[in-house]
Design brief:
The protein starts with a helix and ends with a strand. By secondary structure, the chain is mainly beta. It is about 5% helix and about 50% strand.
Length: about 350
Amino acid sequence: MKTIKSFTIILLASLWVISCAPTESGLRIDTSQIKTTYTAGATVSLAITNPNQLKVDSVAYTFNQKRIGSSNGTTPFRYSISEKKLGTYPLVAAIYAEGNTTQDTTSLEIVSAVTPKILKYRIVNTFPHDISSYTQGLEFHQGILYEGTGQYGQSKLMKTDYKTGKPLLSSSLDAKYFGEGITIFNNKVYQLTWQEQTGFMYDPQTLQKIKSFSYDRAIEGWGLTHDATHLYQSDGTEKIYRLDPESLKVIDMITVYSLDSMVKNLNELEWVNGKIYSNVYQQNAIVRIDPATGAIEAILDLSELLKQITQLPETDVLNGIAYNPASQTFFITGKKWDKMFEIKIVE
């Protein structure tokens, strides 16, 4: 977190053209009055240092590129944090003193105030799963289970009979692509690739490729899901990006926190009843995320499932979340697991 804060400060400082540098005037944001982290709705007292006793006319404050208010002279300004999305944001003070303007920048980190609940579950059914499938994406569509798999030379998209674990239809990726997350939206299957900056769209009935697309920015492709209007993509960090489904451009993002800690390695995604469920890579857990804020609301510990799979030489980590709205159950598997579990979450 501190590295991100430092980078933000350096970057923003380089963008500001100021008429009087803080080091010359001594006018700065008084960071001794700022706590390490805040939660949404908390009040922060903003003040400036004035060691040279200059005559300060006023101070205007901007937070996350929005003006939040001003104070006369050196009077402290109290701000109740209204930003609900978690993360680190720039705080800028424009200080007007003796005919000059000094700008100083720091940052505030907003963390979660939500203590995640621990979810319980029961296993409804256990089905076979193809041990050659390095599962990257899993989703139900019109009663059919779709699965996307990874590894160079082995990646594919499949329609699967989940009761037998056998593919009903399969489409392979070129060997230069490492397949990642999938989702079905507006009668198109979207599939990401890992480091190739490329995704694909398919006809969900035939799995014929419709077209390819390039990522909007230089990020990796990990998980993919959607709500009623947008796609959501993870890249293995603490970020989840909201995408326009037509242009595939990033239009927003959230930073995911569990209390005051950012949670990285967000992987396979599933949208269920207004929440995002995400695997955490190399952890035997799924987290439930508020997409409006990035706060983790609940954690599902699935470590017991590992005791029920056959540990083969290539058996890898938990990965794969598909929600079946018809049964209101989740289907869970892993990379090259020999089983898929249908579970019912108990709040």
